[in-house]
Amino acid sequence: MNTHFKYKAIIPIIKGNIYSFIFSQRTICMFIFSFASTFVIVKKFVNILSIENYSINFLEALSLFAGSGFNGISMTSLIFLIMIAETPRQISFQQYSLIRVNRSFWCFAQVVYCCFTVVIMMIIIIGQSCIFLQPYTNFNSNWSDALRIDSGMDPALALVPQWIRVKFSPFQIFFLSLLPIFFFWFTMVLIVLMFSILGAPNIGIALYAFILFSDLIFPFELFPKIQSPIIFSNFFRISHNHENEVMTRLNIVLGGYVCIIILLVLTIMKKTRKLEIRTYSIYKE
Predict the structure, then answer these.
(1) How far apart are CA 245 and CA 250, in angstroms?
(2) Euclidean distance between CA atoms 16 and 37, whole angstroms
(3) Which of these, 140, 158, 161, lies nearest to 57 by C-alpha position?
(4) Is 106:97 a contact under the CB 8 Å cutoff?
């Protein structure tokens, strides 16, 4: 089997895993839960705006949601963690795919599949946010605070910090906010995949569950030089107290993610060649 054919053969593996992920009961249940929680969060956000008598632009609201990890990175990530808890998918198709291609190509297909699960989750959460925000927002590409300040509002009451309004547009904040979320979730899926291949999937899930709620579990305030990993999961937390060097800090964080991802992929590929891989659960049809 030549290399070109092997690369062509991994496409059905990726598609099979994605199909199994999308239509699994776990994903469907978490999609419904995410839909309901997004509705509640948006309604709470809109109620706060109505109390302050603020109007807001659609892209501006979406950028604020993305910048905060969609108004709660820990809960959103927990929903996604439950979705991808079974990685690689424990289906009989996996055994067939291991026979069809060698382990390196199978591993490559799993990494690509992990990337697609992150993209799918981001599309889901962005789509849900758009659906619920649209009726309560205006379509304008500028910051709504600028109009309110021009009308005489005290700048201290602005919804968006001044340094953001001066340096970035709503679209730029939205795009920049998606980057750390993508890398944070991609790292999470790869860690779950790695521990699953090592034969200890629950450790990977427990590790990231601890990371998601580490602020509540570990007293970081007693150790000022130690930072919670969750700080590096969304744009607003990354940029906190670094307003003058936000892009430099963001690039450092993203560079760190890239290094971690490379190490994870190399570890996964190395272990995949040596270990027996459990690809099917006796509890499934």
Answers:
(1) 9
(2) 29
(3) 140
(4) yes
CA distance 197 to 194: 5
Cα–Cα dist 105/108, whole Å: 5
Position 283 in a domain: no
By the 8 A CB rule, do 242 and 167 touch? Answer: no
Measured CA to CA, the distance from residue 22 to residue 240 in angstroms comes to 35
- Report yes or no on 279 lying in a domain: no
Question: 45 pLDDT exceeds 60?
Answer: yes
| 283: three-class secondary structure by DSSP | coil
Instruction: Give the residues across from 57 on adjacent strands.
Output: 138
**If you average pLDDT over every residue of the chain, what do you get?**
84
**Angle ∠(68,37,26) on CA atoms, nearest 5:** 110
Show the CA angle centred on residue 28, arms to residues 175 and 59, nearest 5°: 25
Q: Tokens standing for 245? A: 């060097």
What's the Rg (C-alpha) of the chain?
A: 21
pLDDT in tens, 185-233: 999 999 999 998 888 888 988 988 888 888 888 777 777 777 888 888 8
Provide the pLDDT confidence category of residue 264 given band limits of 50, 70 and 90.
Answer: very high
Tell whether 281 is covered by a domain: no
Distance CA 248, CA 270 (A): 33
Short-list 102, 21, 95, CA closest to 280: 95
**pTM score:** 0.88
280 inside domain: no
198 lies in which domain range? 3-274
- The count of domains in the chain is 1
Tokens of 22: 């999308």
CB 123 within 8 A of CB 110: no
Query: Phi and psi of 276, rounded to 5°?
Result: -75, 130
